[in-house]
Amino acid sequence: MNPAEQAIRQRFQQYYLDPKRQMDPPPSPAEREYGFLLFNGKFMVRHRSFKDPGSLLTAVRDLVPLHVYFSTAYYREPTAPMDEKGWTGADLVFDIDADHLNTPCKPDHDNWKCKACGTIGNGGAPKLCPKCKNDRMEEQTWLCDRCLQEAKEETAKLLEMLYTDLGIDHEATRLFFSGHRGYHVHVYSKQTSQLGEEERREIADYLLAQGLDPQLHELEETSVGGTRVAEGPLMGQPGWRGRIVAGIYDLLGSEIDQIGLTSTQVSALRSWDREDLLRKPFWSSVKGIGMSTWKTLVSKAVEKKSARIDTVVTTDIHRLIRMPGTLNGHTGLLAMKVPEERLDEFDPFTEPLAFQGEMKVKVTESPGFRLGEERFGPYQDETVLLPSAAAMLLLCKRRAQPIA
Ligand SMILES: [Zn+2]
Ligand SMILES: [Zn+2]
After folding, report:
1. Which of 29, 73, 205, 324 could form an SS bridge with 25, CB 3.0 to 4.6 Å?
2. Could you tell me the distance, in angstroms and rounded to a whole number, from the CA of residue 100 to the centre of ligand 2?
3. Based on the structure, what is the number of domains in the chain?
């Protein structure tokens, strides 16, 4: 362990040893597999099981892991090897992470380096290195207000679709802040626990509007008295039909000039009364806007209204997922439950702070950031005395070293 890891581990240990600490495991805790990522050599201890929250807390206090996970799946024998566990079901889970969002601030706080040729760049890492086409990237990410605000908005869209379109049981749904760059939604319900990978993929595709064909959602060209007219779905129709119209309505009121249309098309759409969308099924009343432009508008509307979940997490029925109430080793922030009615006001830079006191660190380099009411940085090669939560964030992000 290097000095930074030692300092992090010591603080994590103090945190978990606090007599007030309690674990709040998911339903049916004894049927789950638990996993711990430890400090030494990033070794994953898994296939563990615990009968009750108390024994789980004891293990966390003993091991002091960097990350704590539990399985979304239920097993007859959680400690058995993978193929002998006896899968009996799995929660339906969703992960929304700024990693998958195209926020404009990323070039200011994220960067990447190709492990093969050393090419570097700002922003989110490309899938392949533009120079040598290698796919192994080293990424340095940061968490910022803007990114987390967008993640929150995606989460709100997700929840709305789960309840309104898919009829997911409200009572069985829990929302969590991940302690890093996003939110998790867990559905603990018999209604969905038996779904296999394919069914979960269909749900993910629906939420992402993957492969949505506007013509199957009532966007069509018909002939009225010899004239070809475009006709679309109506506002308020269930599912993606109404959502498409709502999305176009929003676009017409805001960034319509930023979606690649010609200036003539933009002014035609601007001069049209968008309230018409709310009244008529006929979209043809806009002069100079034909079917292909409506299709462009539909695809932009769909992009706006879909919930950008990570499909891999939702479709994996053996997934280990972060345990709420534990520290996220990427940040030192607490992964925590967020009551759904409080999502809007929840501040991921205030409520999940877990450390008191102050720590002195030498910061190599860091973007500016906010914790609570206080702003910090940007820093470049400087030694600073910081509130522990800020120092821990920098240590966990490998942007700083502890000063004894
Ligand atoms: Zn490269
Ligand atoms: Zn950002």
Report:
1. 29
2. 12
3. 4
